[in-house]
Amino acid sequence: MIKMESFEPLPDEKKLLTRVERMKKELGISDRSLGEPLGLPQTSIWKIFHEERNLMYYEAQGLVEFLLMVLSPIPYNKVVKDLAVKGKDLTWANSHDKIRDVAKLMFRNGFSQLPVRSENEAYLGVITEDALIKKMLTPEKGNERSWLKKLSDMTLLEADIIETLPKYEGNEPLRVVAQVMIHYPAILVEEEGKVTGILTRSDFMRLFI
Is domain 13-71 classified as CATH 3.40.640.10? Predict the structure, then answer.
């Protein structure tokens, strides 16, 4: 789970609470039901909505996650590790691999992105189709005609093409992660501080099967 450790009040608290209260009424959710996932009694929820108590960052996150769970058609018991590619099934690119070889690996296996690790197997980021295409279309000045060959011979590090993706724990509900997948092609699965898997948009399609 992505953690918010700040206990400061929200800067746009009133706007958020207005929207949450409207949804609460439309869905018929009681203050008690809303407070349970946050570990708050019914009286605390009442005070928050009546501006007698500030809403904290971690509480706001809990409210949003709870409402996503209620609204989402994704089964409540499905979590990230249920669909993610992980362990021995996970294919990695290495930071010293040439772009030509990485592109070939992605093309032949239908990968839209790959996690990248260093020579000592430390996680560095990801390489994506989008990043490759963008790099291809932005040649170095004066090397326009030979750019594709030059780029193909570069390593991932030399091309400065490694990006980052959000990380989630394996037990994170898919309902929550689904919202993130609208903006990112994939997320990384993290266990005990180490990247152990990847969940892509195509993996989500398995929910239809």
Answer: no
